[in-house]
Amino acid sequence: MPKIQMQKPLHPFKYRMLAPFSERYKTKAKIAASAMPLQTIIPHIVMSDDRKLLFVQNSKAGCTSASHLIYEYSRGNRYEGAIHGGDAGLHRGLSYFDDALIALNSPETYVFSIVRDPLKRAVSCFKNFFIDKKNGHYPKYSRAIRKLGFVDGGPMEDNFDSFLRLIELSFTQNLILTDPHFRLQTLNLGYPDILYDRICKLENYNADMQAVFKDIGFMFPRDSGALGKRENASRPSQFSPSAMQVKKIEALYAKDYEAFGY
C-alpha cells in the first residue's frame, strides 16, 4: 500500500528553540502547547473585524461562502476575488492566534461552523480533487491514488473506490494529520470540546446563516445578494455512489453521522 502524504506534524521542540527569533515560530510554539482540538481548528479560524463572529472552517462545507459573508459584514461590500487568498484582509491564520484564543473564550463572540452530509461531502471532494483536478492539493495525492487503482478517464464507480481506499488509508496512518478535506468533520470542528453557538448545515445554508446574523443582531440589506448566492449543496451530481460505497462512507464517517444528525 502506498504511503499517503499527511499534514505536517507539529514540532514543539523546534518551535521553542526558534521562538525567540521569529514571531511565527513563537505562535507555532503556543499552538503546539495547546490542547489537540485547538491545534486542529486555530489555523482554520476566520473572525470578523469587530470579533463578534468567529467561524471555524470545515473544508468542503461552505467555507468560501461563509468567508465572503464575514467579509461583507465587516467591510460593507462584497470581496471580488479569491477570498482565501492573502489579500482579502480577513482576520485568520497563525498571526491571529492570540486574538482567536481570546475570542473563543469570550461570551461576546459568536462561534459557529458549517457541516455537510458526509456522503455529499465525499463526492464533492472526489470530483474537486480527482475528476476536475481544481484543488491545489491534488498533486500531493495523484501518485498514491493511482497506486490504489485510479485511472484517468476510467469508470467513475471504480475510481471512487480508489478514492475511498485513499481515505481509509489516510485514517489508518493518522486521523488527525489527514487532509482536512478528507478528515472527519468532528475533528475539523474540534467537536465536542470546542463550544459552538451554532453548527449550521450546508443543506440549510440560507436559513442557518440568516439565523447566525440574526443572533448577533445584524440583518443583511435586502438587495445584498450575499446570502444564497453561493448555495450549491443541492446541485444534482452526475455521479451517485453505489450501495456498497454508501455503506463504506457511513462506516468511515460514522462519528460525523452521529454527531451532526445525518
Descriptive terms for the model:
single chain, 262 residues, alpha/beta, globular
Explain how this protein is built.
By secondary structure, this protein is of the alpha/beta class. The chain is built from 12 helices and 5 strands. The chain has helices spanning about 10-20, 25-30, 35-40, 65-75, 95-105, 120-130, 140-145, 155-175, 185-190, 205-215, 245-250, 255-260; strands spanning about 45, 55, 90, 110-115, 200. A 5-stranded mixed beta sheet has the order 3-1-2-4-5, sandwiched between helices. The longest helix is centred in the middle third of the chain and has 18 residues, at about 155-175. The protein is globular. The two termini are about 30 Å apart. The model is unreliable at about 230-235 (pLDDT under 50).
* N- to C-terminal distance: 31 Å
- Please estimate the helix content: 40-55%
Range of strand content: 5-15%
> What is the H/E order?
HHHEEHEHEHHHHEHHH
**Which sheet architecture does the biggest sheet show?**
5 strands, mixed
* Largest sheet strand order: 3-1-2-4-5
By helix and strand content, what is the structural category? alpha/beta
Overall shape: it is globular
- Uncertain segments of ≥5 residues (pLDDT<50)? 229-234
Count every beta strand, where a strand is a DSSP E run of 2 or more residues: 5
Radius of gyration: 19 Å
Counted by DSSP, the helix tally is: 12
Quote the average pLDDT: 87
